[in-house]
């Protein structure tokens, strides 16, 4: 979740939102090796490197001190904008703050804090890769998506032939279609596609999110609960319309 | 080769041990050579419900650590010929349960028995995962309440990803829903989830429904699995469940609320 600034009316308003964000998972802490690999990537897919915001994840690294400033400089030189750091020990957090970057706790801890029962290992955690994916990667999931499970199609539509139960999460870069009851969380357009929709046969969703804008179960008009609906985005507002 | 059946639930106290004992007893009464294993290391109580707590010498951990043979540790049931109990340790640390050890024990038992019933500890952690890992079938014990259904759903997710059958891409674990402590009156009052709602959410085959029953408490205090009490509703319901596990088509009972007539309401008192 991040905080957006809206400049209309009062000086600002805070809004909750979920922005699609590329995570750059560091496997090496050596700025030189990062530079080499980035240079290679830049020549392959220059479209991706347009001051793209990235979160530097240092969870896989086992080093209390990092050359964070140099790593950031290397990123910026390749038109990537580090906005935050995820994971690492206290010194890493301190130097992130000193560089004006945000700091997120490691993903493990965060999921544990968010859910009473943490998924021990989400079978298919969404891993936005730094490459632009040209192809449309749609996915069909047969059967019920159960509490603690996560199914994603980061590069296309996700079709679930079954229910999405409470405590489960489905994500798609494109549309999410649930041919059953939607009781868990559904996130469509996770990379910012504002045209994406969520369709379901029976709406009970804990959370609906389109391109980072969301509605919780308690924000949903009770009249619509249990209905077959389409959820789409209208001026940053999720609109839910019954399917006839 | 034995069929390995895990009795599991996620949530604690829903009736796993009661069900494991009752189902194992029922299978043995039908002539199947059956062993029931307590995986709840540190909190063993299968032996209490089976009424053999005074005869425990060795346990599952002793066998795994090579301190006793299987035949030394297994206890023969006093009432039913084909039935054996492999108790859990009360004193050992639950980390003594190793994946390799469990595999060795189950492999050995598989050769001699028709059914191996594994009584899982509560939770979704290591102990529960070890108990379910080798299962061919799973009996998912669920009470008619939201938190129990949610936990059963979670366990079903783990069965489809963390079991041996899932990991080795074999046919999936055969999943059965066993609803226990069902109180039709409270269901009809809306205090508890009804049968249809539970089935709709969990979307697996219903193998049985056990009513809330005083016979269960009586049975566990006496150390006689409730399956032996064929006069009781719970005893009959577990017997039906066993028949269905054996592939028979038995109609469901004890799920409908018989509204009491005016007279019995006036003279028979209210709720149990
Ligand atoms: N059908 C029933 N009617 C009434 N009481 C029941 C019924 N089934 C189980 N109980 C009672 O519920 C309690 C818990 O049962 P049991 O020990 O079988 O649950 P469990 O799932 O094995 O618990 P744990 O998670 O602690 O291992 C016991 O007191 C038992 O007598
Ligand atoms: Mg138990």
Automatic annotation (TrEMBL), chain A:
Keyword annotations from UniProtKB, A to Z: Cell cycle, Cell division, Septation
Pfam families associated with the record: MinC_C (PF03775), MinC_N (PF05209)
Gene Ontology BP annotations: cell morphogenesis; division septum assembly; regulation of cell division; regulation of cell septum assembly
All residue ranges annotated as the Septum formation inhibitor MinC N-terminal domain in the record: 12-82
Residues of the signal peptide: none
Ranges for domain Septum formation inhibitor MinC C-terminal: 141-240
Protein origin, superkingdom: Bacteria
InterPro entries (UniProt xref): CAP/MinC_C, MinC, MinC_C_sf, MinC_N, Septum_form_inhib_MinC_C
Subunit text: Interacts with MinD and FtsZ.
Family per record: Belongs to the MinC family.
Entry function: Cell division inhibitor that blocks the formation of polar Z ring septums. Rapidly oscillates between the poles of the cell to destabilize FtsZ filaments that have formed before they mature into polar Z rings. Prevents FtsZ polymerization.
PANTHER family linked: SEPTUM SITE-DETERMINING PROTEIN MINC
Protein name: Probable septum site-determining protein MinC
From TrEMBL, chain B:
Keyword Cell division: yes
Database matches in Gene3D superfamilies: P-loop containing nucleotide triphosphate hydrolases
Keyword terms, alphabetized: ATP-binding, Cell cycle, Cell division, Nucleotide-binding, Septation
Gene Ontology CC terms: cytoplasmic side of plasma membrane; cytosol
GO molecular function: ATP binding; ATP hydrolysis activity
Domain AAA: 2-158
One of the GO BP terms on file: division septum assembly
Positions of ATP binding: 11-18
UniProt entry tagged with the keyword Nucleotide-binding: yes
Assembly and oligomerization: Interacts with MinC and FtsZ.
Family to which this protein belongs: Belongs to the ParA family. MinD subfamily.
Function: ATPase required for the correct placement of the division site. Cell division inhibitors MinC and MinD act in concert to form an inhibitor capable of blocking formation of the polar Z ring septums. Rapidly oscillates between the poles of the cell to destabilize FtsZ filaments that have formed before they mature into polar Z rings.
Name the record gives this protein: Septum site-determining protein MinD
Organism: Modicisalibacter muralis
């Amino acid at each position: 979740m991040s905080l957006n600034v809206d400049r209309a009316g009062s000086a600002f308003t805070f809004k909750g939102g979920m922005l699609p964000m590329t995570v750059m998972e560091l496997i090496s802490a050596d700025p030189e090796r990062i530079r080499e690999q980035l240079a290679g990537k830049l020549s392959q897919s220059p479209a991706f490197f347009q001051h793209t915001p990235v979160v530097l994840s240092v969870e896989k690294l086992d080093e209390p001190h990092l050359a964070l400033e140099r790593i950031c400089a290397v990123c910026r030189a390749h038109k990537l904008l580090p906005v935050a750091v995820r994971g690492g020990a206290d010194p890493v957090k301190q130097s992130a703050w000193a560089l004006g970057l945000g700091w997120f706790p490691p993903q493990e801890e965060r999921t544990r804090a968010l859910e009473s029962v943490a998924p021990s290992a989400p079978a298919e955690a969404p891993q936005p890769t730094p490459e632009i994916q040209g192809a449309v990667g749609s996915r069909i999931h047969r059967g019920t998506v159960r509490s603690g499970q996560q199914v994603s199609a980061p590069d296309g539509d996700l079709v679930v032939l079954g229910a999405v139960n409470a405590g489960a999460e489905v994500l798609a870069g494109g549309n999410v279609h649930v041919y059953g009851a939607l009781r868990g969380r559904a996130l469509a357009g996770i990379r910012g596609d504002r045209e994406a929709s969520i369709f379901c046969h029976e709406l009970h969703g804990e959370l609906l999110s389109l391109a980072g804008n969301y509605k919780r179960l308690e924000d949903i008009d009770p009249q619509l609960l249990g209905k077959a609906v389409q959820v789409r985005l209208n001026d940053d507002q999720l609109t839910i319309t019954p399917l006839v | 080769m034995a069929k390995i059946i895990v009795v599991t639930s996620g949530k604690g106290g829903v009736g796993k041990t009661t069900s494991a004992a009752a189902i194992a007893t029922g299978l043995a009464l039908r002539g199947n050579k059956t062993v029931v294993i307590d995986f709840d290391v540190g909190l063993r109580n299968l032996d209490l419900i089976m009424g053999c707590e005074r005869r425990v010498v060795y346990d599952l951990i002793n066998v795994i650590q090579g301190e006793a043979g299987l035949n030394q540790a297994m206890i023969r049931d006093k009432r039913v010929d084909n039935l054996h109990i492999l108790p859990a340790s009360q004193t050992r640390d639950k980390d003594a349960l190793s994946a390799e050890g469990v595999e060795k024990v189950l492999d050995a038992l598989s050769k001699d028995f028709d059914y191996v019933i594994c009584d899982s500890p509560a939770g979704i952690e290591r102990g529960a995962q070890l108990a379910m890992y080798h299962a061919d079938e799973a009996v998912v014990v669920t009470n008619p309440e939201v938190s129990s259904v949610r936990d059963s759903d979670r366990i079903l997710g783990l069965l489809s990803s963390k079991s041996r059958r899932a990991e080795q891409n074999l046919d999936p674990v055969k999943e059965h829903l066993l609803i226990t402590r069902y109180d039709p009156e409270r269901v009809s009052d809306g205090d508890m989830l009804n049968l249809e709602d539970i089935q709709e959410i969990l979307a697996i085959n219903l193998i049985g429904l056990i009513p809330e029953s005083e016979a269960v408490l009586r049975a566990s205090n006496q150390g006689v699995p409730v399956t032996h009490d064929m006069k009781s509703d719970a005893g009959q319901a577990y017997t039906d469940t066993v028949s269905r596990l054996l592939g028979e088509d038995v109609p469901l009972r004890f799920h409908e609320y018989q509204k009491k007539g005016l007279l019995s309401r006036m003279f028979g008192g209210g709720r149990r």
